[in-house]
# Entry
Amino acid sequence: MKIAFNPTPLKSAHKERGIGYYTKNLLDNLKKDPDLEIIEFTNPADIKKDVDCAHFPWFDLYFHTLPLNTHCPVVVTIHDVIPLIFKEHYPVGLRGKINFILQKLALNRCKRIITDSFVSKADIVKYLKIDESKIVVIPLASDSIFRVLNESKLLLVKRKYNLPDRFLLYVGDANFVKNLPFLIDCFNDLVKLPDFVDLKLILAGGVFLKNVENIDHPELISLKKVLRMIKDYGLEGKVLRSGRLDLEDLVAYYNLAALYIQPSLYEGFGLPVLQAFTCGTPVLSSNKGALPEVGGNAALYFDPGNKTQFNSLVVEALQNKSLRSKLSRLGFIQAAKFSWEKTAQETKLVYAKIKS
# Structure
């Protein structure tokens, strides 16, 4: 089969985010398949007439990224519809509203829609009014760089960044849905307990080193609140902001963390949970969105609005070595259910069904 594939997320702001991670890993694995000829394009007008279908690996609700007309069948990946679920936190102007109409028109002409989870599939049906028979769930995966590292490598990274002996880790963005003010609030209570005065929290991601004080943007409201809370609570020496890390160092951070925390109000998938699993890191996760779908029985779950429940789980996990070992073991088993080879094969089946 000859497939036209749009790699635009690899050349945009999405490059360092989950959409870029998905695009790169899917594209790399599709290219390994001898039955597929992958032709990359950025301009839909350049799609050759002899291709079997065109794949857009992302979908923007408020930018016109999907063409209304193509001379071949179109497959699009919609990772989530978070801005529609939490509309009050994702305001959109007139141009965005017009683009939304155009995007919905283009979406209705797509042959298939791929999404990351059954939760996202249900949301797409509900908010975009798409026939569920057109939507195929194909999960993402961690990749081989996320793994258990040897002690010498970990010691080098620990010294390089002067990392604490015991820390909680969060990896990702800082928008409203990530629920980071909740995490800071809980952590402030934890470090007041006698057994946890040495505990640190590391926020890993380039967004945390942004100077946002004088920037007025709705997506930065949550980050501004987090930074203000850290200052007001006097946590500057306990909440550490790493900034963007190269992948090898990020892997070491996962390995060194006592616990990985995913406090989100919602996720359409939750890649960091799988990345933590493959590094042997015990995971505490919110029970919202697709996170239980991804974490299975390998994570401890909490209501992302319940501070008492969250703190009791952190205390239990940090004080119970056998529980952490059990979570680590279950994490490896859960992560093994996901692979980019499987993601690529299931995507290939979508292409084949369209062709037939």
Notes: Residues 2-141+339-355 form a domain with the Rossmann fold fold (CATH 3.40.50.2000). DSSP finds 13 helices and twelve strands in the chain. The two ends are 11 Å apart (CA to CA).
